[in-house]
UniProtKB/TrEMBL annotation, chain A:
It comes from Plantactinospora alkalitolerans. The lineage of its organism: Bacteria, Bacillati, Actinomycetota, Actinomycetes, Micromonosporales. InterPro entries: AA_ABC_transptr_permease_3TM, ArtM/GltK/GlnP/TcyL/YhdX-like, MetI-like, MetI-like_sf. Keywords: Cell membrane, Membrane, Transmembrane, Transmembrane helix, Transport. This is ABC transporter permease subunit. Residues 269-288 are annotated as: Disordered. Belongs to the binding-protein-dependent transport system permease family.
From TrEMBL, chain B:
The chain crosses the membrane at residues 20-39, 51-73, 79-100, 140-162, 182-204. The lineage of its organism: Bacteria, Bacillati, Actinomycetota, Actinomycetes, Micromonosporales. PANTHER family: AMINO-ACID ABC TRANSPORTER PERMEASE PROTEIN YHDX-RELATED, MEMBRANE COMPONENT OF AMINO ACID ABC TRANSPORTER. Its main location: membrane. This is Amino acid ABC transporter permease.
Length: 288, 214
């Protein structure tokens, strides 16, 4: 993260530099001490033994984990598409001119933004079957995630649409477009480009939510980790590897969001070159 | 007497556990957030890296994975805590990263002139942070911090997945006995909504009182 961090301190002088060196040495010592304690704990309980880590160098275990990761990504992808579509509809509903639509979409968003996803999962697991609604494991995970995330997406879309300069919509109206056309041809394309980074950040949260497959016993990454751990009895090792896999995927997504942010939401194509505003004294110069 | 009302006390206990977990965790996460945010802007490059790594790791791991790692895997190393404590530690560590980022965003809104003025009158880095920067930074991010607290409230429900009997888990338990899913889950949902509303009202009040209008 190399965003221009504003400095709250001056270029250090000789004394400051000495203090920074002392703090660095102390920091290194503290980190080393922490690592030493961790390694000691691992060693004392025999968790460092080579044969407790060797399985994670073999292909069958990795194939199992990668299939699990694939299931996580699939659940995340389906959830993303469904909740983005539903979220967009909800955002349009909240901005609609019909009062009933506004109220309905608003109530949905406000309710599902403040109810925990786990509660929604318990509802699909234990309540809906009583009313004859029994999904497959995949949908038992995806449906509650869509219900919760569509509310989050709706808020992102609404903020993006409202943040767009009013002049854009007014210009659309002025050339005789109908409200739906203004939204589709003028407002949405611009709002979506500007929203791209926050939408990708929301993806990280959504991908983390799929770990609730652990509760549903849908074999995504975390639940597969648990199955593997109870089979091999390598708890620490398995969960650490699972954590690293989550970290790699999510850190790449976060990085991608930051790249989009730096590029104004455009990954390819024309990158708007900042046109320098005309200097006022340019005109005053005598033309020769 | 309605047989259902006997379960009301049980649901009440669940609600109290959720509230306790939320309050304890919010305070711990807020303190941790201040520390990590300070690390991320301090003059020592190594400590800045430590803060950055902390935020990146904690924000990119699912909370449930952390809870499972802490509750089920750490006992292998002989490290065990009571369940409630484990859940509180993990959730505080996780949300601390979010508080740290919010506070850092607040620090970035404080004008450069403020830090320069603090240095000009001879305050050290920690003094200028304590007396000049942080009080203004906090006031700029009351609303975002309220949103993080609401997210934290919802995330305390994940403690149910590792065995803490809080509101979500109680609702589930009562439903398994009573088989009244619609009533019980709606009630639990309403309780969460009311708590979130309460946090929203408190932060709204704080904001009106404390926010600096520039």
């Amino acid at each position: 993260m190399n965003d221009p961090q504003r400095l709250l301190f001056d270029e250090p002088g000789p004394r400051g530099r000495r203090r920074i060196r002392i703090a660095t040495v102390l920091g290194v010592l503290a980190i080393a001490a922490g690592l030493a304690v961790a390694i000691h704990q691992f060693a004392a309980h025999g968790e460092l033994a080579a044969d407790r880590w060797r399985p994670f160098g073999t292909w069958p275990i990795w194939r199992y984990l990668l299939i699990a990761l694939w299931a996580t990504l699939r659940a995340a992808a389906v959830t993303t598409v469904l909740s983005a579509v539903l979220g967009l509809l909800l955002a349009l509903g909240r901005l609609s001119r019909r009062r009933s639509l506004r109220l309905l979409a608003g109530a949905y968003v406000e309710i599902f933004r403040t109810v925990p996803v786990l509660l929604l999962i318990y509802v699909t697991l234990f309540a809906l079957p009583a009313y004859g609604l029994n999904f497959s494991l995949f949908w038992k995970l995806v449906v509650p995630l869509v219900v919760a995330n569509s509310a989050a997406f709706a808020e992102i879309f609404r903020a993006g649409i409202r943040a767009l300069d009013r002049g854009q919509a007014e210009a659309g109206q002025a050339i005789g477009l109908r409200p739906a056309q203004v939204m589709r041809l003028v407002v949405l394309p611009q709002a979506l480009v500007k929203l791209a980074p926050s939408l990708v950040s929301q993806l990280v949260g959504l991908l983390k939510d799929t770990s609730l497959g652990f509760v549903v016993s849908f074999t995504e990454l975390l639940y597969s980790g648990q199955v593997l751990a109870s089979y091999t009895h390598l708890l620490i090792q398995t969960y650490l590897v699972v954590a690293v896999l989550y970290l790699v995927v999510n850190a790449s997504l976060s990085k991608f969001a930051r790249v989009l942010q730096a590029r104004n939401g455009r990954l390819f194509g024309r990158r708007r070159t900042p046109t320098a505003p005309p200097r006022p004294d340019d005109r005053a110069l005598p033309t020769r | 007497m309605n047989p259902f009302s006997g379960y009301l006390t049980e649901l009440g206990h669940g609600l109290v556990t959720t509230v306790e977990l939320t309050v304890v965790t919010t305070i711990a996460a807020l303190l941790l957030g201040v520390v990590v945010a300070t690390l991320r802007i301090c003059p020592v490059p190594l400590l800045r890296t430590v803060g950055l790594v902390y935020v990146e790791v904690l924000q990119n791991l699912p909370l449930l994975a952390l809870l499972v790692l802490f509750v089920f895997a750490l006992p292998q190393l002989g490290i065990t805590f009571p369940l409630f404590t484990s859940a509180a530690i993990v959730i505080a560590a996780y949300e601390g990263a979010y508080f740290a980022e919010a506070i850092r965003a607040g620090i970035n809104t404080v004008g450069v002139g403020q830090a320069e003025a603090a240095r000009a009158i001879g305050l050290t880095f920690s003094q200028s942070l304590r007396y000049v920067i942080l009080p203004q930074a906090f006031r700029a991010v009351i609303q975002p911090m309220g949103n993080i607290s609401i997210a934290l409230l919802m995330n305390t429900s994940l403690a149910a997945a590792v065995g803490v009997v809080e509101l979500t888990q109680t609702a589930n338990n009562v439903n398994l006995v009573e088989a009244q899913p619609l009533l019980i889950f709606t009630g639990a949902g309403l309780a969460y909504m009311l708590l979130a509303l309460l946090i929203g009202l408190v932060t709204g009040r704080l904001e009106r009182r404390l926010a600096i209008v520039r």
